[in-house]
Specification:
The chain has a domain of 40 residues. It contains 3 helices and no strands.
Length: 60
């Protein structure tokens, strides 16, 4: 994100949404983050293919 996007989405109290997340299974969560944000492409592709029908898009 550029500076303006960061300011608008993260620091502007009128636009930001802050939610606390509680994780029950730390190991599974860690694996998911590694799959989605790590170096391995295959796990990320598999996740996207498996969950693509759940995705929604809001073009406001």
């Amino acid at each position: 994100m550029d500076v303006d996007e960061t300011e608008e989405t993260l620091t502007d109290p009128e636009n930001r949404i802050i939610k606390q997340i509680t994780v029950e299974d730390v190991e599974a969560t860690d694996k998911l983050f590694e799959d989605l944000m790590g170096q391995g492409v295959n796990a990320r592709k598999a996740y996207i293919k498996e969950h693509s029908k759940e995705a929604t898009y809001n073009a406001e």
